[in-house]
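Sample intake sheet
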Amino acid sequence: MKKSILKLFLVGAFSTLALTSCSNNDDNGDINTNPSGFVANPADFKGELKSGDKITLDPSKVYYLTGKIQVNDGAELTIPAGTQIVANGGTSSYIAVAQGGKIFSNGTSAKPVVFTSDKKAPGSWGGVVLCGKAPINKAKTATAEVSELTYGGDVANDNSGTITYTRIEYAGAIYNSEKEFNGLSLFGVGNGTKIEYVQMYAGSDDGIEFFGGTVNTKYIVSNENEDDQFDWTEGWVGTNEYWYGKEGRSKGNRGIEADNNSSNHTLTPIANPTIRYATLIGLGKDYVGEGENQAMKLRVGTKGKFENFVLANWAKGIDIEHDATISWIPNDLFLKNVQFINVGVEATGKSSAGTAVDVSKAYAKADNTGAGNGVDTPTWAKGWTVGL
């Protein structure tokens, strides 16, 4: 009888110890799973996450991006608040999320996630590329111009993850002789993806570019990028609020460059974003340099609904080109409540044949606060951004 009681006591004690041990592992142990064998080496951060891999970086470490990180179908990469990823591999250094993969770059206002470069110079690394399964008008599916991953499909609510309170600096390396990265490139990304409180700073090409898809954005800063601050093409139809774009470094092109499809201006789905509360600031109405000194270039068939825009310090406020684009005025292409500040020419239009067209019905003027604070930095952009 005593032996049985002792035996039960020992079994119970070992069971309790085992349960306690398992509980401690759940709370404090390794949260990564990597059936492919992928290891996130901070000193040499590169490689491919494959199906089943779920990797969470350590925010107490700096990760040196020495090559490509590719998050494949069924894999997840989580980047916690305060994590720094420093690219030092030039053109070969970039982050790419393939169809079915997910990235969770979840910073906070006090501790943003920062993608940057050791050189602190525009174009010194690639950038961040997401490829989703949402509709595009280039083809049913296509190959991304950077990363060479497939994108497009018919999943409007496709989910590529979350990017919040994240800064992408000094991107835009030349991928090949004809193509270069943007800060953030969104290829066929669906509206299940969350893109909020994101800054693209001092890249050598566009800040953010949408290649079709349905993804929505909110609270976006794009400043001092050397081409366009915002760009879309291939049938993007997202809904957006609070954009703040600002040229800088005595170099820049447009605030917004907007296309539908350059090969066929009426291909569907037709680009038709909704953008409310935006400020676009140029280098001055008398600036003469590379590119076109324009706040907004709307062309090759894009539609768009825009409301509460401040356009400041541009030679030209709005430039609308091509017959298909002009045909959407005013029902499917219209700027409501736009304020021009220190702008040389408010708007011009040009047909596909190159003749001048009156586009005065494309917009209505009214004083407003744009992205929230007129030409000044919005309150929501303070604390986690740079260069403003």
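Comment: Helices lie at 2-28, 323-327. Confidence is low (pLDDT under 50) at residues 1-30.
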